[in-house]
Amino acid sequence: MQVILLAGAGRMGSALLRGWIETMGAGYHFVALDPHAGPSLADIGAEPAPGSRFSHASTIRDLPSGLRPQVIVLATKPQSIGDVIADLRDRIDAETVLVSIAAGRSIRSISKAAGTGSPVIRVMPNIGASVARAVSAGFASTGTTSRQKTLVERLFTSVGQMTWLEKEEHLHLVTAVSGSGPAYYFAFCEAMIAAAEAEGLSSETARALAIGTVTSAGQLLACHPDPAHLRATVTSPNGTTAAGLASLLSHGVLEKLSRDTISAAARRSRELSQDPEKRGNCE
């Protein structure tokens, strides 16, 4: 039985754990290590699949004696990862895959903290994991085997889709586009609601229309992943959609806003990846 240890069962960690237990089937022992997540995990492990196990440990001392995880998923705050690895060092060897979903902690820094020569994989999922619609991208350290990558890929495809990157540096852009991206769409939805209310719709109607439109647009993109084609399909010449788009796209404002948004988020990710003594007040 393969042991998957999750260190940190907050919002993202618990979403991942739920996906693993519900979809990965037999042959796994999932262990959640988190001092604060006992009640929130009660329903997750209530009925694991036949042939699999789930257990929760509040502290390192509560872990089963002799437990040797094949994979440790680090889902804590970035500044806590070093301490977590130090606490788990006796359970890490050269074959243990360390997977970090924390922004700003490089493979080099994680490898240095472990000091075991273990393979390290960084993955950036997003909040879509909570509804099994995550978009994740990862980068693996040199020496990670195809078998190890396949196992980690299965962990993240259990909550959505997963792609591999050619450069670790690209994780800053992944963080900016898909990691932070849901918030941009939520913000635009808020702006649509406010605009509809300003034009005279009730708050209830504005919310229903704006949220329903964003939801249906996302479903259309999932079925037909060509945004330009879908936009053209909805837009009749000289119609209302054309008039709205003309304002939205005028003078390249939307394009510039999008570039500035992605650039700002990626820049912040790079700041957070600096050594602690160089971060200043970045956190």
Question: How would you summarize the topology of this molecule?
Answer:
Elements: E1 2-7, H1 11-23, E2 28-33, H2 38-41, E3 53-57, E4 71-74, H3 81-88, E5 97-100, H4 107-114, E6 120-124, E7 134-140, H5 146-157, E8 160-164, H6 171-179, H7 181-198, H8 203-223, H9 227-234, H10 240-248, H11 253-272, H12 276-279
Parallel strand pairs: 1-2, 1-4, 2-3, 4-5, 5-6, 7-8
Antiparallel strand pairs: 6-7
Helix pairs in contact: 6-11, 7-8
Account of the 3D structure:
It is a single chain. The protein is an alpha/beta fold and 283 residues long. The protein has two domains: 2-167, NAD(P)-binding Rossmann-like Domain (Rossmann fold, 3-Layer(aba) Sandwich); 179-271, ProC C-terminal domain-like fold (Orthogonal Bundle). The chain has twelve helices and eight strands. The protein has helices at 11-23, 38-41, 81-88, 107-114, 146-157, 171-179, 181-198, 203-223, 227-234, 240-248, 253-272, 276-279, and strands at residues 2-7, 28-33, 53-57, 71-74, 97-100, 120-124, 134-140, 160-164. It has an eight-stranded mixed sheet, sandwiched between helices. The longest helix is centred in the C-terminal third of the chain and has 21 residues, at 203-223. Residues 276-283 have low confidence and may be disordered. Pfam families: F420_oxidored, P5CR_dimer. It catalyses: L-proline + NADP(+) = (S)-1-pyrroline-5-carboxylate + NADPH + 2 H(+); L-proline + NAD(+) = (S)-1-pyrroline-5-carboxylate + NADH + 2 H(+).
